[in-house]
Amino acid sequence: MARILLLSNGHGEDLSGALLAQELQQQGHNVQALPLVGLGSAYQKAGVPLLGRSHEFSTGGIGYTSLRGRLTEIAQGQVLYLLRRLVRLMRYRRRFDLILVVGDVIPVIAAWLSQRPVATYLVAYSSHYEGTLRLPWPCANLLKSRRFKAVYSRDQRTAEDLSRQLQRPVTFLGNPFMDSVLTAATPPPSSTPRIGLLPGSRRPELEQNLQLLLRLIELLPNTVRCNVDLALVPTLDDDSLRRLSERCGWHLKNGVLEREGAWGINVRRGAFRAVLQHSDLVIGMAGTAIEQAVGLAKPVLQVPGQGPQFTAAFAEAQRRLLGPTVFCADGESGSHEALEGTAALAMALLERARRDPDLQQQCQEEAKWRLGDAAGGGPRMAAAICSLLA
Predict the structure, then answer these.
(1) Model's pTM, two decimal places?
(2) Nearest to residue 208, comparing CAs of 324, 301, 307, 281?
(3) If DSSP codes are grouped into helix, strand and coil, which group holds residue 329?
């Protein structure tokens, strides 16, 4: 069996890489991962060994949207860390029969420098952003080289666009990150309308986002019956959550965040898939998680924050990527005006999500157009990669 190295550069990319790695391991291949930023927690959870030690940075990756994020990257030494990762790749490259890139131009360049055969899943790029994809230099030139044995896209529109641009086949086989949320989860006992809250996963931005979402929930009318589910990662434990919520006037009791006159918020840990599947409306401040919500045909309401990741600019780009079933109120991020507008929009969308067949149909159509209409992207892509090694 072949020896394969996964190269990825971000939380969402690591998630897709880990799912692909598991599929390739099941085919009998020896798989390791080299996350170019972050701890590579998704690989560790999936039982995929890392090539050397990894380190977490507060911004989560190179090139995030906000200026503060970029300055933080430099101060924390992310550029030097990336260079050390590239040195490690050069040192061990001959161990591997294939480099599998999951991400954007940075791992593409790294894989090309390795002089090993490469397969690429361009999960970070889509023609839905602008209509015609403009790959950053020198990505297009590298993808045309013979070292790149296959290129896979995140949607069919991008596959057709890049096939013309690169003058080589670019294939859409589905998105592995959708496989993890498509298996049916146990439905809740109540048919009451449900809102899912996605504050993100990376600290300290997670805490900032959560405080903003708590302010939003305070503005929703408690005369309407609704369940609110908070999908929370383990890195924010109950003690930390309790301290944060009490600063905002909320209290954690028996797994529920409570505040007088406001809806209770069910804290759901390890239940991300269930929260996504059973929400009528998703209110989010995340990257991949909102993509997964759209892929499940859910209307999404964004709440732009202060970053470094989920800023107003990031949210606007995400709407171009994911289409008209992702909504956002006007106003400056975090302002009372914006939160009031978001609260009003949330109530309107919650009603439409349950009673408007036009919105329901539009969500189904956009899910198919933006992310594909079938599960099994991971197995299909892994099988295609295995055929390269035959």
Answers:
(1) 0.92
(2) 307
(3) coil
